[in-house]
Amino acid sequence: MRRARLLPAAAALAAGILWGGAPAEAQYPPRPTPFSGQDFSQPGPQAAPEYQPQQYQQPQFQQPQYQQPQYQQGQFQQGPAPSTFAPPPTSAPPGTGPARPRPQLGLFSPAQIVARVGNEPILQGELIGNAGEELTADQLEQVLQQTLVNAIDTKLVYLDFLRTAPKDRLPDIEKQIAEAFNESQLEMMMKKAKVKTPLELDAVLRESGNSLAKQRRMFTERVIAQSTMRRNVNQSPDVTNDEIRRYYQEHAADFAIPAQARWEKLTARFAQLGGRDAAWQAIAAMGNEVLGGAPLSAVAKRSSQSLDAEDGGLHDWTGQGSLRSKPIDEALFTLPLNRLSRVIEDEEGFHIVRVLERRDAGAVPFTEAQVKIKEKITEQKIIAETEKYLTRLRQITSVWTVFDEPSEVARPESVYGPR
Question: In this predicted structure, what is the pLDDT of residue 139?
């Protein structure tokens, strides 16, 4: 769900206001025997190509030294920053409950009430603005479902503020937030609407059932709701070393790094060459060129029939098990380094590969992972505490939406599912 976010300046203001990749003579055999997963460094049952054992000695290579890969940021999905309001609720979004009838919303109607929180209405135009005019009925319903939960939660927290805030401070608070709106939002809104004055902006907004006054009010409610949320939900919960280590152990798969290989490839495709015989002749010619001293990259760019040809057949670090071609994947992690493979066949065609480097499987060290783990646990705790707070507010404030069944009107908070 999209969540309302606040410019840093406005957030700070609210906090301050409120709560402080020439041929050799020898040739490949004229016809291949299909690849069957044999040891790539040993001769198969068919006639051996020139680079079989009579021409290459057992390589004197050492087991490649494991190089610690850097931790990948992509292993974590960055969630909402702890200082932002309303992480996604765990309860169901509007309209996803069992046996709920399809609402008849029709086309965009900016003044239509789509939800009510306590005595406060929420209008279509307040949620989606002018964008609603270009939506079909189905698209409108989908957009409303995506935005309504956040709008309801904002309203709930804003009303909670009104119940608890000192009444004599409200005018000053609203005045200062309005000044922040003029400084941080008004110019941006006029530029987007391609107008030069607030009066012209107000006229544009009224065409979609909105107004500048409504925009100021919604901004005020968001600022106050964010500040109130921060006051009621601890944004810096304690995370112990035991919790971090337990998370690392329980989510070991998230920190696993597969064996990796950097390699290059020649390919002859069945479809492009009109069948297996022509493909075999093509891959044999390419392989013998490389055996004769031609750079594999040059042969690949000239003759290989794969997307990697323009890169000289080079592939950067590839994780074990990540390739669609299982025969090639097997070859990459069994071949000696810097030796041409035998001809490999898969459903696409014939291939010859050469492994340049290889890394053993491993894991992100705990000392490197613990910072990200702490951030993840902190986020989870904030989300849980936020939902706990919102659940309490739902129990004391009635909530109705256009997605509720008719029988639920007396029980308007049902948009969040059974309690």
Answer: 85
